[in-house]
Amino acid sequence: MRNHALWEKLRPYVMIAPAMAGIVLFVVYPVLYLVRLSFYKYNLMNKAKSKFIGWDNYRKLFGNDDFYKSLVNTVWYTVGVVALTMILSLLIALWLRRSSRWNALVQAGIFTPHIVSIVSIALLWLWMMEPSHGLLNYVLQSLGLPTSTWLQSSKTALVSVIIVSVWHGIGYYALILVAALQSIPPSIYEAAALDNAGRFKLFFRITLPLISPQLFFVLVIMTIGSFKVFDTVQVMTDGGPNQATSTIVYYIFRYRSTNIGYSSATGVVLMLVVGALTFLYFRLLSRKLHYQ
Amino acid sequence: MASIVFEQVTKSFDRTAIIRDLDLTIEDGKFTVLVGPSGCGKTTLLRMIAGIGPQTSGRVLIDGKDVSRVAPGQRGVAMVFQNYAIYPTMSVRENIEFGLKNNKVPKEERKRLVESIGETVGLSGLLDRKPSALSGGQRQRVALARAMVKKPSVFLMDEPLSNLDAKLRVQMRVELIELHKKLGTTFVYVTHDQTEAMSMADTIVLMNEGVIQQMSSPAEMYHRPANRFAAEFIGLPPMNIAELGPDGVQLGFRPESAALSEEPLDHHLCIRGVIATREMLGSETIYQVRTDKQAYMVRSAEDRFEVDRPVYVGVPAEKLHFFGADGRRIDERSSDVRWYLEAARGLVYA
Hints:
Radius of gyration of chain A: 24 Å
Number of domains of chain B: 2
Distance between the termini of chain A: 47 Å
Shape of chain A: flat
Pfam families (chain B): ABC_tran, TOBE_2
CATH topology of the largest domain in chain B: Rossmann fold
Helix content of chain B: 25-40%
Shape of chain B: elongated
CATH architecture of chain A: Orthogonal Bundle
Number of helices of chain A: 13
Number of strands of chain A: 2
Strand content of chain B: 25-35%
Radius of gyration of chain B: 24 Å
Order of helices and strands of chain A: HEEHHHHHHHHHHHH
GO cellular component, one term (chain B): ATP-binding cassette (ABC) transporter complex, substrate-binding subunit-containing
Mean pLDDT of chain B: 90
Domain ABC transporter (chain B): 4-234
Helix content of chain A: over 70%
Low-confidence stretches of chain B: none
Protein name (chain B): ABC transporter ATP-binding protein
Oligomer: heterodimer
Largest sheet of chain A: 2 strands, antiparallel
Largest interface: A-B, 20 and 26 residues
Number of domains of chain A: 1
Largest sheet of chain B: 6 strands, mixed
CATH class of chain A: Mainly Alpha
Organism (chain B): Cohnella xylanilytica
CATH architecture of the largest domain in chain B: 3-Layer(aba) Sandwich
């Protein structure tokens, strides 16, 4: 009888044990291990020579100008990508909200970059952005517009990387927002029309609040994703010129073999920054969201 | 206060005409109910008045003014939608206020109006709630308040009671009748429920397949249906229809006009049959009487007849209706009716 009661108590835990084992093994353990590594001067060749150095890696990190440069780059990159992608994908979604065959075609077209590898896309843009032979400058020139140095100058390199990332992501986020817009019952708009609402009011008082959960989702997901940007930078600029496009993850990557403890400390800082930002979003915005 | 006139109005969806060359006048200050089966075009008519589904051709006049090019918000109409279409992200107060704000009503007056309307429809304590925290009946009241607060000259309602439970529906029906009496404005009400139409309307507009079948008072529609469709749509259970003769004339009588007896009756029409089903409703009982040709519904105050027992159904001559081969009513003053009455007598023991 007592055995039976015990089993009743244990059963839920036994049931979720396999899933928990997976989470512990693949999520909790790696994160803890990352934190542990960040306190070590780790020797990849000879594990026995690794030694615990406390906060040294962090001290070094926060005393390094390159780290700040990467952090600032990452913040600008994130602000640029998130703002541009959100505004543009919302505009595209508003344009494509009416479901018609033509709109479906356009939507598929805009979505296509998302199914192409970012490496291929980065290479393609690298070629198009080539200052003297690239397509972009050719087009600008033939339109009589000033050309750009694109990736080759520290002034324009970050913006160029932002353009590529925005171009890559826009279709996916527009798709999410189109679905959100299409789920708004038409009768709400009809009621608003009868209430004599102008276009401006309609957008800011009806449409925007109704798709706020999806906008918030896009904001959070994109912020997290942008903070972790790596592949575009690696392929297009190698962090250059003159560290103009070096981001946090690229910074981590640079120390991957020379100083893995230092790398890990950067990773932990990135994790905390992204975590704090997400927390902030939820605190600041969740009351403005309208879940139905 | 406004009358509504449709002049030669056509409405097509994807080149299929739902309504063709329709003429209709809805009287000022009346409670007009558009009724008909689903897909008959009644909601389409309502949306044309509101301007949210404008006509393909023809003119719609509100208070004598052609509104074909007037935006929905400028027509002086308010509408209650079937699903209420309340703005889910706004509080009850904001919902009611939205139209006033758009019409630049000053803040003080807005506050006063919202509060007095809230009182009228019984939402006083709920003004700062979100619609998601309201029951179906309360949402219905929000939709009603939102329409009322604008003091429209025309009230449009698209099956506003269909999402309520049966009890609340009957209650709201009475409240709407009272509201109409109080406001005295033109009400146009769409429903597929003939009971709602009969109980609330000053004038019923009965539609089928985009065509107006009959437009009259509820009493007229019940006692003198213009055609077979009207006869069978209005009334519950619908009118019994039977073939009368070779020229395609049909005879009809209402279930409540018939008498039941175990003995042959000396009514003008007397039919023998067997009781197939019996629905005991309390104050009355509905029987289905089956003859070898067809079944008739009979509504009776007596509940003593049992299933499978032979009975006689009797109908007096003045309660019989006749319809021509085209389905139209044959006027009782017409000379042919005498012949049809004779023929009906021939149905005895059929």
